[in-house]
Amino acid sequence: MLDPLRNFVFMWMESFSQCSLDPKHHPIIMCPDQKVFRSTTVVEFAKVVLNESKGKIADFAAEDLAQAEGMHRRISEHRSDDRHMPQFWLSCLCSFGLVGQREKPDEPYPYHICILCLQVTILSHRHLFAIVCFFGGIGLATLLHVRGHHLFGVAADIGVFCVAAVLLVVGTLDANRRLEAELKHLTTQKENLEKLSRRIKRWAEKYERVAKLWQFQTMNRLDLFDAVSGILRSLRFTEPDREQQVANALSEINEKLEKAIHGFGELRLYLEEGVVEDSLLALAAQQMKGNILKIGEAVDRGDIRAVGQKIDNLFGILFLRIVRAENLPNVNSNMFSNSALTDCYVTMQLSEKKSLDDHRTRTVTDSLNPVWNEEFLLLVEPHKQEFRLELWDSTEGQLVGASRQAIGYVSVPLQQQAAVWVSRRDQIISHKSKTPLRATLEYEFFFMTSVRHLSLEFGRQELSSVSAWLSMRTLKGAETIWSSAPAS
Predict the structure, then answer these.
(1) Superfamily assignment of 317-484 in CATH?
(2) DSSP label of 214
(3) Which among 178, 278, 392, 400 has most CB atoms closer than 10 A?
(4) Which of 34-43, 148-157, 211-220, 372-381 is predicted least confidently?
């Protein structure tokens, strides 16, 4: 039981390796290989995986974004801060007492001292020194005049007046000093902000490169393993008598999962521009997502066989070109028709639930050798073994009461022709007699059963690859992605 479970979890953890901004060069390693394969019991293996995988999925750019948020908050606070507005250092209060406190707990100044009804605001160390000099000078001058040293007293008076003049403008001087310090701080903040902006921009560029990979491959891979993991619960793998049965089923599923993961394609299909069209990757991802949901439903039912079949058939897109038909029987020789010869068109029957006219060519009138050269890109049920091309005589332009006539059909095998450019000229089988006619239908197709096939070379001069071919056309519709007819 340990080996298949270990292989399953190992492939699952490999999918998490893409959850990186640089999965090609710096993938996320959820658990080192040596630790995965060193475990000898299921319990030991589970503990190793749980312990090693904790905290491995990082919140990209979280630290830088938090720093940017902090800077924005500080700037907002600064805009509402009036601390560098000029303020006078002496004021009166309607209170009595002796109290000293800082205006801001984390800054030494301004510091308010309340003495009875008088409040003295100390703005800086220099301001404190000036206040001490002012009151000290008043005391000194008074003492000198009392003792009759009037000459020295006048000198002290002049000094006191000079200090008083300084104290009158100290608020403005302090505001200017604070503004200069704030300007220096803002300059530093600007440099830090520019560095932070460049880092976040690099994060964004990396994210943009890998977003396509995450959206079109990684999420489907993780969802696939999440859906399949329910097998362990549905098979009750903890019961000892079922261990071998579960191990065999999981080993078979692992082989299919390995093939499916290979079909998702290389990283370059998603990371490099121009390898595969984004619209086609999106379509493939959407189709696989729907099939993964069906896998989950099969797991819930405990239908292991259906799970394996659906893993084998996650994806199917058909490129089809209807070229021409030759030697058609003339089915217009009747009283209802205004045409001398057959008015033929071709329909593609991809599903028994779809009507025959869901996918069709234009009608070529009055011709037993019609030429269409029309191309179609069609979603196909991945498990489908074949589809039919049916030829009909059109009722367009015929008298009222006329009904279209079946000319014949061609059955086209698919599964044996995956990822191979096929050109065929087949005899048309009669609808009525079920026997071959002399008429033939010429057509070409390329059936893709994995995303990897989207980048394959067609091997034709006029078509270099699926992606190049798609780049010249517009995707539209849900079942018929697009169809094109040559200019008349």
Answers:
(1) C2 domain (2.60.40.150)
(2) I
(3) 392
(4) 34-43
